[in-house]
Amino acid sequence: MPHPLDDALAQVRELLLDPDQLVRAVGAGRRRSGLPTWRKVELRPVDLKFGRRLQVTAYDATQAHTSNEAYDGGAAAAVDLLLAEPFGNWHVETTTQTLQLRVTKRGQAQLHLGPAQRLDGAEPADEPGRAHDRVKASLLDPAELLWHVLGITDASGRVKPTRQDKLHQVSELLRALDPVLSTLPARDGEPLRVVDLGCGNAYLSFATYRFLTRSRGFDVRLTGVDVKGQAVEHGSRVAAELGWSDRVTFVQGSALEAPVDGADVVLALHACDTATDEALARAVRWEAPLILASPCCHHDIQRQLSAAVDGAPEPYAALVRHGILRERFADVLTDALRASLLRLHGYRVEVIEFVGSQHTPRNTLIRAVRTGAPPTPEQLADYRSLTAAWSVTPHLATLLGIAADIPAT
Ligand SMILES: C[S@@+](CC[C@H](N)C(=O)[O-])C[C@H]1O[C@@H](n2cnc3c(N)ncnc32)[C@H](O)[C@@H]1O
């Protein structure tokens, strides 16, 4: 149903000037009544060193003209000028909805309201109001300087196709983190210490910092750890560019030994092979209240099974006879034993699929919440009989110094 144009533009104006809700807006096309000054205009909030600004990019036939307007300064005037232009369409994406305004031949407005667009390339959610979609929407705001500096979005704020899977993994991992945040002990004014072990290009590190501070209100000190100096240099450079260097730092070293004092939340996304074991062992040593680890390749137990194919317990030899099945079984056994060892060290553990396999085949997540509960005799017996049956010694057990025996409390 057509609406009076002024009312519809007033609705658009309100969205354009909302620094927290607006994701991106585009004015384009023309009305019967006239030709706009600009071929197209794009607006988005951006976080600059001196605060959030409304970025306005106006395109003429050959180039783009960009200005960053303060919300308590020139933003309202800039928006009013653009809304006065005879654009034929406005497309406005916010964290909760998508509004499309089309001006009819009679100069009235056709308005269409839809769910928020998912910026990670996935289909729109069935229920746009669900909590996790709000998490995604606020997390994946492509207008953030952060994503641009990290190289995830291109100049127009679109997620680069090659980065979509990783961004989706990161957002799903944060979605898995969100519900267990409530189990964290009281902070007593202390910042939350988050450590990302095997941080690589630090997408997860920065996304977590951004999510926990802006969306969840924590005061966070985040440390990214990687064996590669290049990863540390990259993370440090991005942190400096964002003005976050005092709260987001990077350290070169192994997950097991890097100079970090402790952590409340330990993250490890696709830390290679036994680097995941190092991350889990470190977290146990720190008695970290929360651990989220999504393992990568699993060579340790695989090697042990390959070396002893004939030693498989009856009647399970068929499970490890064929290379591909042995590989998959080794993955399952490795993560089952990791979960088992964490339970023996006072963690409540879940092993879940945190992201669809189309985004990565490495989609298992070990989510552990520290309870401090001593191991039960049944848990000990389970662990011992499983490792004995398959004649394996998980690397994590070696790191925890309990290969030979686990003290029954
Ligand atoms: C597959 S990448 C994953 C990076 C990042 N977490 C992600 O998901 O995009 C694995 C990273 O772990 C690092 N790494 C490998 N072994 C490590 C260890 N023992 N300690 C710390 N980092 C390690 C590698 O240098 C690499 O950057």
Features:
Rossmann fold; 15 strands; seven-stranded mixed sheet; elongated; eight-stranded antiparallel sheet; alpha+beta; 409 residues
User: Judging from the principal axes of the Cα atoms, what is the shape?
Assistant: elongated
CATH superfamily of the largest domain: Vaccinia Virus protein VP39
- The CATH architecture assignment of the largest domain turns out to be 3-Layer(aba) Sandwich
* Helix proportion: 25-40%
Which cofactor or ligand species appear? S-adenosylmethionine
Q: What is the name of the CATH topology of the largest domain?
A: Rossmann fold
Q: What pattern of helices and strands is seen along the backbone?
A: EHEEEEHEEEHHHEHEHEEHEHHEEHH
Q: Between the first and last Cα atoms, what is the distance in angstroms?
A: 72 Å
Give me the Rg, rounded: 26 Å
